[in-house]
Q: What sequence folds into this?
């Protein structure tokens, strides 16, 4: 990409400007869409981790499984896209309830066993997807057809819709956390679990709701990724790493930080591949994160962990 | 009233028995697949033991498989491009892993547990991406044409090589843990404030244990590079590290024997006995993990300990009592 | 002077925990550092032992400026301490707690430790013997094989003391050694501290309980991070400022 830009110095300046502008718009769109996807999927992880201290290593696999299941319903079984999306979201919300009751709740406070059960869930989900759906890369047909044209520039409508959907969901989540009764109870539990329980808050109920919500958001993120980009069998592992990077940079305990950092990281992931080819860009991204971790381990918005 | 305990020779005797069985095994079973899986089991046992060694001080080396990869790739590149013989490349791989462990451990060891764990996780991931991006290490596909340790197609010499290597590493790490050094690490894990007030240099010990753990896993990784036909990055990724952690955890984190018990159960048994299940085979380790997580909090070593103290000791007591009664009756 | 503290100041954000604090301790003395809760006594200890570094001021031990040193280095120079909240190596036995604390003298190199040389074995035997002696001194030899976390509170405190003695200090900093003890335990502790002085250890005691005054040669009183009084126990006991700092005008016990 950089070489291509340099080679065109012989053309007229105006032409270059249009070209650069187009790259800029595409990158910006990518950044916003990626940010939306990663924020959505990370929120689910952050809910469980900040509130209950549960380290759900399987969250990336949940995201992946939802994407593949969406492909199964929409492409393989031919169900209408929007209905398929809703079915998957509802199923995964149910999965969230199930996991919370049987896999997370018994192991609150026991990090080792959380990881054990998480690894087991990852194995089960990945194997199930492999057997039922397949281990290839797939694409879910787009939800919104067409391209928006403005002068010389164009953006696909589905990307705009994805970003819009992400934004709407985010606003709903923020409203939920800040305004609703459940959301405030959730904040109380995050700050002090024992105190919240003593005040009569039903921890089990809130954690069930929050787990279902988190898995539902991850499901939406998975299907978005599957329709805007692609589904691949390793996306769970890679996304888990991106989730952890996001949470650590945002800081433990902060949901606001997830949003800000999500935008920043979306921009990073969209622009870095332009400058560095292939796997090296991933390596550089993680190296940058490592340096930040050394300088400011507690992240930028959260509180210190004892 | 003191309960009769099994003779203190029981444990060493069982160990010697196990070693003898392992030593004569190739003479009884010649299936190459069995030997192959056993070789890999030995490799992962060393990985699991060295993983657990680092956790003595309270740190979690979530880059551990990546360090095995550092050892493997170092040995592989030195062998393929410079044609160095294995008896040089293998120590070189181990040393490289150990030194990088020190370089990484030094700034990160002073962080608190969670941040150190996250830092090492990202470091391991960075290593994986780094290796995938370089042509010299073969990219995603991996490195081939590494000089094998032994000529010929037979797995038997490799089997003995890795058996001896595993025993030596286990012995070395055992000595490390059950000496004053290991004790000081346990002190640091229990109260770092207290440990420094009695003169333990916390930072130095933390870096030391990371270096030792990384050295041994790099050693076995470098040896592995001279056995496997191709060295691929996916063998050493985050998932591999998580599984090493699982081998330790189901065996029991608090016992040296834990990883030695856990690895065969979680790796060898599914790989060898259930390999015909093909795509379904990952379910077996998952089920084992679930069973242990819900039913055996202290891992299998803890279970054996409980069994030993309640059942076996009583049994031994009855045997001894009978002997005494016989002697008295005659 | 064995220990000299000059102009020591430590600030945490907006709170000044220790404020231009001066004091000294001579070889062979028992000096008390008393003051109400929150006066800054433990912070002074943390500043001496290198857990915190002061914003201003110096700590000089044996004519050496130790202000910027790390805790394990300071322990190596001969300052031992106990802690108010008394952390222990809870998974170790009582005896192991003490032997684990014998890292300084005798000091064995990594090489000797790892390869189980005769030097190492000899040192370990010496350590074990000395640990048993210390346990006898503090009255814990009966429970030497019990797990530290299973001990009753008073015993745990004595174990903390035993652990500090294992570092063979020249200067021993005791932090609330009588905290949470019943009268017979207090008497035993005071006795033990006296025996330690006979063995040549210089002792500084932070205490809340005024009974400690009987044992001290000299007393320094601290409140709000500043020294408010210094002198012989009798003088300090009568001092009006001290009484009002502690009791705010209430009737003293």
A:
């Amino acid at each position: 990409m950089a070489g291509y830009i340099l080679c065109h110095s012989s053309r007229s300046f105006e032409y270059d400007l249009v070209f650069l502008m187009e790259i800029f718009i595409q990158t910006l769109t990518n950044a916003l869409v990626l940010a939306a996807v990663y924020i959505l999927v990370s929120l689910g992880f952050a809910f469980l981790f900040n509130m209950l201290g549960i380290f759900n290593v399987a969250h990336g696999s949940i995201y992946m499984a939802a994407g593949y299941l969406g492909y199964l319903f929409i492409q393989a079984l031919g169900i209408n896209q929007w209905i398929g999306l809703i079915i998957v979201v509802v199923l995964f919300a149910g999965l969230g309830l199930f996991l919370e009751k049987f896999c997370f709740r018994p192991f609150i406070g026991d990090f080792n066993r959380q990881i054990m059960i998480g690894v087991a869930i990852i194995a089960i989900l990945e194997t199930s997807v492999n057997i039922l759906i397949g281990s290839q890369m797939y694409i879910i047909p787009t939800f919104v057809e067409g391209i928006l044209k403005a002068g010389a520039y164009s953006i696909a409508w589905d990307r705009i819709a994805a970003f819009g959907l992400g934004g709407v969901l985010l606003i709903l989540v923020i409203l939920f956390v800040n305004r609703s009764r459940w959301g405030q109870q959730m904040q109380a539990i995050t700050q002090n679990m024992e105190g919240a329980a003593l005040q009569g808050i039903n921890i089990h109920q809130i954690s069930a709701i929050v787990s279902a919500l988190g898995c539902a958001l991850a499901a939406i993120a998975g299907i978005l990724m599957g329709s805007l980009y692609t589904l691949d069998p390793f996306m769970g592992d890679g996304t888990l790493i991106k989730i952890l990077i996001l949470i650590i940079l945002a800081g433990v305990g902060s949901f606001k930080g997830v949003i800000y950092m999500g935008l920043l990281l979306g921009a990073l992931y969209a622009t870095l591949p332009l400058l560095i080819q292939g796997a090296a860009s991933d390596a550089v991204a993680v190296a940058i994160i490592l340096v930040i971790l050394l300088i400011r381990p507690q992240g930028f918005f959260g509180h210190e962990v004892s | 009233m003191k309960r009769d305990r099994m003779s203190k020779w029981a444990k060493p005797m069982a160990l010697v028995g196990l070693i003898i069985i392992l030593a004569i095994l190739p003479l009884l079973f010649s299936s190459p697949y069995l030997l192959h899986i056993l070789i890999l089991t030995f490799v992962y046992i060393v990985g699991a033991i060295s993983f657990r060694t680092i956790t003595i001080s309270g740190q979690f080396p979530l880059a551990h498989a990546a360090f095995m990869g550092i050892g493997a790739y170092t040995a592989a590149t030195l062998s393929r491009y410079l044609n160095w013989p294995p008896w040089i490349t293998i120590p070189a791989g181990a040393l490289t892993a150990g030194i990088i462990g020190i370089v990484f451990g030094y700034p990160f060891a002073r962080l608190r547990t969670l941040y150190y764990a996250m830092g090492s996780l990202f470091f391991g991931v960075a290593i994986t991406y780094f290796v995938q991006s370089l042509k010299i290490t073969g990219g995603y596909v991996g490195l081939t044409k590494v000089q094998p340790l032994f000529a010929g197609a037979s797995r038997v010499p490799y089997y003995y090589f890795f058996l001896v290597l595993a025993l030596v590493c286990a012995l070395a790490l055992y000595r490390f843990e059950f000496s004053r050094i290991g004790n000081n690490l346990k002190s640091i894990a229990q109260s770092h404030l207290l440990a420094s007030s009695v003169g333990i240099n916390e930072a130095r010990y933390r870096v030391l244990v990371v270096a030792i753990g990384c050295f041994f896993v790099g050693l076995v990784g470098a040896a592995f590079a001279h056995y496997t036909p191709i060295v691929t990055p996916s063998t050493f990724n985050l998932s591999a590290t998580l599984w090493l952690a699982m081998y330790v955890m189901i065996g029991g984190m608090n016992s040296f024997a834990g990883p030695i018990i856990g690895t065969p159960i979680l790796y060898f048994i599914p790989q060898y006995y259930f390999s015909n299940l093909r795509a379904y085979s990952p379910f077996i380790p998952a089920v084992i993990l679930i069973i242990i997580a819900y039913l055996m909090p202290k891992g299998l070593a803890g279970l054996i300990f409980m069994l030993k103290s309640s059942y076996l000791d009583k049994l031994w007591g009855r045997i001894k009592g009978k002997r005494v009664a016989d002697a008295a009756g005659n | 002077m064995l220990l000299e503290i000059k102009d020591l100041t430590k600030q945490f954000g907006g709170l000044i925990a220790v404020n231009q604090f001066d004091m000294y301790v001579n070889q062979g003395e028992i000096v008390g550092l008393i003051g109400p809760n929150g006066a800054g006594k433990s912070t002074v200890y943390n500043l001496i032992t290198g857990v915190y570094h002061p914003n201003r001021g110096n700590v000089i031990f044996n004519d050496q400026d130790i202000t910027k040193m790390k805790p394990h280095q300071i322990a190596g120079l001969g300052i031992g301490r106990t802690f108010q909240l008394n952390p222990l190596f809870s998974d170790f036995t009582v005896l192991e707690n003490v032997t684990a604390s014998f890292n300084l003298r005798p000091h064995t190199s990594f090489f000797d430790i790892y390869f189980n040389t005769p030097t190492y074995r000899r040192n370990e035997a010496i350590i074990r013997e000395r640990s048993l002696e210390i346990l006898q001194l503090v009255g814990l030899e009966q429970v030497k094989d019990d797990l530290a976390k299973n001990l009753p509170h008073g015993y745990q405190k004595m174990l903390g003391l035993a652990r500090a003695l294992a570092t063979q200090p020249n200067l021993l900093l005791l932090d609330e050694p009588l905290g949470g003890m019943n009268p017979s335990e207090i008497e035993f502790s005071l006795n033990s501290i006296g025996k330690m002085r006979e063995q040549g250890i210089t002792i500084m005691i932070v205490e809340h309980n005024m009974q400690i005054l009987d044992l001290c040669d000299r007393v320094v009183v601290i409140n709000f991070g500043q020294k408010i009084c210094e002198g012989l126990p009798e003088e300090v006991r009568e001092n009006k400022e001290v009484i009002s700092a502690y009791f705010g005008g209430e009737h003293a016990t």
User: Anything to note?
Assistant: Chains A and C do not touch (no CB pair under 8 Å). Residues 169 and 184 of chain A are 18 Å apart (CA to CA).
